[in-house]
Amino acid sequence: MVTELDDDAHSSMSAADVATVLYIAHTARFDRIWIAGGWGVDALVGRQTRIHSDLDLAVDVTRMALDHLLQAFGRHGYVVEADWRPSRVALVAGARQVDLHPLVFDAQGTGWQANVDGQEPFRYPKDAFAKGLIDGRLVDCLSVAQQLRFHRGYVQREHDNRDIALLNALIGRTGTR
Fold this sequence. Notes:
Layout: H1 15-27, E1 33-36, H2 37-45, E2 55-60, H3 66-74, E3 79-84, E4 88-93, E5 96-105, E6 111-113, E7 122-124, E8 129-134, E9 137-142, H4 144-150, H5 158-170
Parallel strand pairs: 2-5
Antiparallel strand pairs: 1-2, 3-4, 4-5, 5-6, 6-7, 8-9
């Protein structure tokens, strides 16, 4: 049972909501999508550890424009709340929020996400991608190593510290995702 409320949980994304969002993306032919953020940590752990205010998705836009995915979400009631392209787009539908992080892959297989204000882009090396479980369903997610990379360089909130502890506990386990 999940009892821990996220620090900024004015909205909530359930495991069923995650499944619905992935369905929307896959029916729009976006098959290279990785769950990131808090839900990505929970996917690696294999169970939901807290209530999530949003769902972060790293999305491969190398061959298909992000607008195509935004239109698919629009057909399901999502609207753009914040548009910081090419770095990030936040969508909302009622109490549900999805943050899309567009990636473009180079010939070596490294993914790149633009940053804001001309800052250095975010790098997704080949070891950045893994498999995890959400509600017993196998999903693509960011790896332990990539999650830990993204938990650096800012002041962590209480739930970030809990996520880091969960990620650190996964390091070195047999079958670590």
